[in-house]
Amino acid sequence: MLASIDGVTYRYEGADAGPPVLQNVSFDVSEGEFVAILGPSGCGKSTLLYLLGGFLQPTMGAIRYRGEGVRAPSRERGIVFQDFALFDWRTAMQNVEFGLECLGLEANERRRRAGAMLELVGLSGAADKFPRQLSGGMKQRVAIARSLAAEPALLLMDEPFAALDALTRDTLQDELRRIWIATRKTIVFVTHSVEEAAYLSQRVIVMTARPGEIQAFVDIPLGEARERDTLLKDERFIDLRHRLGVMVRRSARASEAA
Amino acid sequence: MPTAAARAVKFVRDGLLPLAVLAGLWQLASGIVGEETLPSFTAVARALLGSALSAERLDLLEENFLATVFRIYAGLVLGTMLGLAIGFAMARFSAVEDCLNPILAPLYPIPKPALVPLFVMWLGIGHASVVAVIVIGTLLPIVVNTYRGIRAVPQSKVWSARSLGASEARLWRAVLLPGALPQIVNGFRIAHNLAVVIAIAAELVASQKGMGFLIGDFGAAGAYDMMFGMVVVVVFVVAALDRAVVWGTDRMLHWHYAAR
Questions:
Q1: pTM, entire model
Q2: What residues of A are in contact with residue B163 (Cβ under 8 Å)?
Q3: 3-state DSSP call for residue B121?
Q4: What mean pLDDT is reported for chain B?
Q5: In chain B, which residue's Cα lies nearest the Cα of A155?
């Protein structure tokens, strides 16, 4: 087992008297697994990801990574954000090199590895472009390459494709499937899109709205070779999408009524 | 890329034409209120041209011009370095932040030239008191923009750097400083203009040298055409310096403004 969340409750510090963001959440993530965390906005799914990353500390409960308590961020656990979080003053290549600089690698070795990562995400031609000169989809590819270059065992993805247009989103989902199969990274992927969760992951954790609790674990037994156009007509996929959709819409309605 | 002809047309239309209109209005106004109240454009132009042809006058102008430039940049450089240090300390250490935050707000609106007599009392007439007031004046915009700029670096960038293995020192050097740079540069542009204003104002009262002193001195001697001439020179120099700073910093921040 790579990571475990054990009875975690999270409350904002200070005078926030409302219900906790997360309440008594427990689940495990196995090595090599692709897990999606699905829920309506405000259900604390991003907070859960930040706790796994070590950026936040739980109010109650424990987060463990390879059996040890998570106290701080680590290069073992990479993260990709919805807003890309690129360093605007660095070229695509230099962004990908950042983690390698932290490792103290020499310039040649850095460039070789960063170049390979840019190739993996299909961006070799844009190595010398600055983020401002890239489209949203290209920016997110750089961010993914930057995370992977630091060779994390666990990749945390915080609604990474939510800011992209639908077609770019489809393309990047396909790319991510390909990268996951090629690298066998463990991925925890936060999303509010039912279809995205079902298409990408092996297992979906469905959350309720605030307080965020686990509503259900849903396995996605669709195998590894997934082809979007075939899958969209596949009865199993249609059924999974329907089940997940019913659950998410129910908790979204409950939170609006509250 | 516009053609050379198109650029020339644009230069005449956007650059020269407004100046010509201004000169015309000035000439007209002078004709109405009289040469004693407002020296005419042609009188001032003649005085400036006369100065340009007189070696003695040119020496006088050069000496005073260089004194002012020295003071502006000595004060600006010191104020910027000090301001960066204080702004960084405020963003880094909450104790410094808590201590300085309540002090900064009331200091900001103080008209800095009002401090000149105080510094003359302490440091006497000359370079030191003028530079000191410029340091005080340029300090605040740098401090505030450095502090706010660092604070405004998105958390996602900071967290990304941490998860990529950045040490605390690297986070500051390689993420927070460059991330805050566009706003620090904005502070520097404000400070640069302020430095010029303070230098001229301070020299009017606290110096026997400098463009501010010359303006006052020509005025006291009744040479109103030269007094106005000095004002015109200062206006053009200030505008040119400001353009130079904008040009330089835009290039430094090309990644911030880069087009697709």
A1: 0.86
A2: 53, 55, 73-75, 77-79, 147, 150, 152
A3: helix
A4: 89
A5: B163
